[in-house]
Design goal:
single chain, 340 residues, six-stranded mixed sheet, 26% helix, 31% strand, elongated
């Protein structure tokens, strides 16, 4: 079951992803950044204050949590999260021990539930939107356990198909219980699915006390506008879990938005009968001189323009413009609709 639980009394302006503005000639190019953590604490319930202390020490903006072990939407653990100024969006196992996925983030950040209509059997997940101006990023927190079979690859393909139709930038982070340190056939099969969607595997270090690399982050950015800093895996901050927390900072170049002035006529409001009458009168009054064809065309054009200016004068309008990639054309949009 899913739940959204957050602190109160804070506006959306309390925190911001925006870290830098670079002024251009016609527009303002902005860069958003957020400090990110991936961690499997193997239960938030018995170490929530320690985990939130880690959030504060690392100034975490948003985190993917696996094995939250939460069994309902609001409880003592979520109340503690709220007291630290954070909110939580999570999928919990009602009445069952273990499992559970969550996204914990600073209250006020533009984070919202991303609805995925499909249900999956081989993994648990929670998906959210990260929004900064016109830039939208999907973050999926995933927890997989049990044998690694082709069923997981098939369901992963369906999930990525849905996500890629919704956003041009997305992140998959979680404890996938896949031995990424090996070249086994099941591992390669899973990696091939991620690669088929152009996703980059980011974590190359051991993330488990047994030297295994089980926790992973995958990134896709259509225009390479979503980037990341070097990853930091901290074995000394495991807080009693057999998994290590992973830290990094993501940077997103926001879509450039600027305003320009355009000149328009409101032809929809023109009285056609009155316009026709005035145009007829002006044409009858227009003198065709003997100064040549060019002069005659000029006089006729000026006469027609005077009538048009009377009935639909030119006005100036300011509109916002969002930069688009040159290949983002009508054909591309139609194929995205078809894929949905």
């Amino acid at each position: 079951m899913s739940s959204v639980f957050g602190a109160t009394g804070k506006s959306k302006e309390d925190y911001s992803f925006l870290s830098k503005d670079i002024m251009g000639t016609n527009n303002c190019v902005k860069e958003a950044s957020f400090n990110f953590m991936l961690f499997n604490p193997r239960s938030l319930n018995n170490k929530i204050n320690d985990v939130m202390g880690l959030f504060q020490d690392k100034d975490i903006d948003i985190a993917s949590i696996c094995e939250s072990w939460l069994e309902d939407d609001t409880n003592f653990t979520t109340s503690i999260i709220k007291s630290y100024g954070y909110s939580i969006i999570h999928e919990f196992r009602e009445g069952k021990r273990g499992g559970g996925t969550a996204v914990v983030f600073k209250t006020g950040l533009p984070v919202n539930v991303c609805k995925i209509s499909r249900a999956f059997e081989t993994f648990e997940f929670v998906a959210v939107w990260l929004k900064a101006e016109s830039t939208k990023i999907i973050l999926v927190t995933m927890y997989r356990t049990g044998n690694l079979t082709s069923t997981f690859s098939n369901e992963l393909d369906l999930l990525l198909s849905d996500i890629s139709a919704k956003a041009d930038d997305f992140i998959i982070a979680g404890d996938l219980n896949i031995h990424f340190e090996t070249n086994s056939r099941p591992t390669k099969q899973s990696l091939d699915v991620f690669k088929s969607y152009g996703m980059e595997k980011l974590v190359n270090e051991s993330t488990h006390v047994n030297g295994k690399s089980l926790d992973q982050i995958f990134l896709f950015s259509m225009n390479k506008t979503l980037r990341y800093s070097a990853f930091e895996v901290e074995p000394l901050n495991s807080l009693g879990s057999d998994h290590f927390p992973i830290f990094c900072t993501f940077y997103a170049s926001l879509s450039g938005k600027y305003f320009k002035n355009i000149h328009v006529r409101n032809l929809a409001t023109v009285d056609k009968v009155s316009f026709s009458t005035d145009l007829k009168d002006v044409l009858l009054e227009t003198t065709i001189t003997s100064n040549g064809f060019g002069s005659a065309v000029h006089n006729l054009s000026s006469a027609c323009k005077s009538v048009l200016d009377k009935h639909a004068p030119i006005t100036t309008k300011s509109i916002s413009v969002v930069d688009k990639a040159p290949w983002f054309d009508k054909e591309y949009r139609e194929f995205r609709k078809l894929r949905r």
